[in-house]
Amino acid sequence: MPTDRGQAAGRPTISEVAAEAGVGRATAARTLGGYGHVSPELRGRVLAAADKLGYRANALARSMSTGVSHTIGVIVADIGNPFFAGVVRGICDASRAGGFDTIVLSTYEDLDEEVAATNVLIDKRVDGMIIASAAVGGRDVGHIKEALNRGVPVVLVDRAVPSLDLDAVVIDNRDAAREAVERLIAAGHRRIGFVWGPPMERPPATRRELLEAASRNLWTDGERLRGYLDALDDARIPFDPGLVMVGRKVEERVTEEVARMLALPDRITALFCTETEAVTGALRALRAAGLAYPRDVALIGFDDSAWAAVMDPPLTMIEQPVHDLGAKAAQVLLDGIRGVEPVRETHTLRSRLVERASVAPPP
Amino acid sequence: MPTDRGQAAGRPTISEVAAEAGVGRATAARTLGGYGHVSPELRGRVLAAADKLGYRANALARSMSTGVSHTIGVIVADIGNPFFAGVVRGICDASRAGGFDTIVLSTYEDLDEEVAATNVLIDKRVDGMIIASAAVGGRDVGHIKEALNRGVPVVLVDRAVPSLDLDAVVIDNRDAAREAVERLIAAGHRRIGFVWGPPMERPPATRRELLEAASRNLWTDGERLRGYLDALDDARIPFDPGLVMVGRKVEERVTEEVARMLALPDRITALFCTETEAVTGALRALRAAGLAYPRDVALIGFDDSAWAAVMDPPLTMIEQPVHDLGAKAAQVLLDGIRGVEPVRETHTLRSRLVERASVAPPP
Hints:
- Two copies of one chain form a homodimer.
- The first copy, chain A, is of the alpha/beta class.
- Helices cover 45% and strands 13% of the residues of chain A.
- The first copy, chain A, has three domains: 3-64, Orthogonal Bundle (434 Repressor (Amino-terminal Domain)), CATH 1.10.260; 71-170 and 322-349, Response regulator (Rossmann fold, 3-Layer(aba) Sandwich), CATH 3.40.50.2300; 173-320, 3-Layer(aba) Sandwich (Rossmann fold).
- The longest helix of chain A has 16 residues, at 82-97.
- The interface between A and B is large, with 40 and 39 residues.
- Chains A, B: InterPro entries: HTH_LacI, Lambda_DNA-bd_dom_sf, Peripla_BP/Lac1_sug-bd_dom, Peripla_BP_I.
């Protein structure tokens, strides 16, 4: 909720003005932001409450200036991923409630496309941007800094970029992964495969090499890997680099790697999958090997879906709060557009382990 | 391919100019469209070939005028549907190859949102629009006519709107549905459920009432219903209105309706599902009734996916050429932007029945 951000700065928030005025937050935001329709009576109550509480923001000055297009731009890594489709739905719903239209560009994980997309949004004069960036290091963020330099607020979603001091809305990837792997360990597993790891050319010789590769790649994947290692460490299970898939992050590669892990002398008895394609790739490998879950191999994966629930047996999956993730990012961005001073924090939302029937003790 | 369109008008196409010049189509298009980078040598060859063949288009005049933003806008009914996500990918790939950026708006099947989205795109000065419209009748298309009146080319994708005389790129919904239902009939089924039909308040008394409701609703759904009826007619199987789901098009409703059809004295032995949610809803109903596919009930659905292939048994599904659908729509639109005279035809791409293991004879 934006409340905590305002309170951190010791100033009344829009929510507090709304409560004082006895109106909804959206009405207060419309009044204080100077956009959309608000009846004269409600407008009067909101302005009186704002006056009483000493609410101030450059919002009024800002949104009454010309050039506010009431459009926000969203750049996602891959709109074909149901995860991002859900995030975009949350952004659209929240921005629409705030009186803003949303335009979306998909970069398909290509940083050059992301740079081009940022330029398109600047050119189209959006009032702010939400970006799930393909950037993995400080050298990749010139385009985001360029947008900020032009006065366009930016909020990151799903993927924090450590080198950028910006508001970011993410889920608890590391905790979610740790909880899932702990669940497998609690069922008795010690040989737990991890798909997928960073796209390295060859398998890592050491844990350190693996973590270094992860830190040069996607933040989200790296956090999930750290959660896997946390759970192994807590249970004093030695790390085995042979149980981590590296290489191209595609379904075919997952199938190959899981087949390899199933053929080891001390084979895996459980799998933790960080993506939908990793789950479907793993299921193909199990079937090809004539193995069934949860009898021969236990399995937990990201992200929950209608399909996961109708599998036989149904799959235990991690459900991400995709709609909330998008809605929260939009709220933070709209606050920024209305002139609320950014606190540049990482907002972490909780995921949920949906327990079904794909975890059983080792055979 | 755009070739047939140019040939229909009796004029050389960009592809023919490209062939004559010995260059790729993209190079010829860039040269004739006056955008992007083309080396002086290739440019000279293309212009000579265009001259020799008598190629003419208002493309040059048009794209050299100011105001061309090299951006196209896409309005889809629901970006959360993997079908549209795939179509958008095809549009992005083809428009990028043609030197255009793509911005996307999702209306979540709300016609008011679609009108707003059209205004946003006009406001953002896109060079053309691709729309999967939620419009179902002539009274709903004012916003599309408005865009056309402002000189913005529009191509429809996935959904034809019969009252609009526009280029549309669709799949063979009716034939695809007929082929799938014929497959079920060939396996011996005569009691075949259909989910989902039009969102009627109460079940139709007659076939005519059902078809009238369908004609007032989404074109795609109506075509699939007609294909189902075609297959029944060809096999002289009498139409039973009790085997068609009507009402809200959501998974929960599918589960209720399939449960009802399974409880009939003369119960269904097969199901044809027109959407992914219809498939997952049907699978929930089968499981709740303690029935298995294909042993107790055969099943075919739209659309194929990685999940459908890893189900046990794997599902027989209809695969739509989603990427081609988007790419073709983008090609037709870019031709229009470059001034190629529109022929205002419906381009129909072929879907494919992917046979796996969810069809068996009736019990």
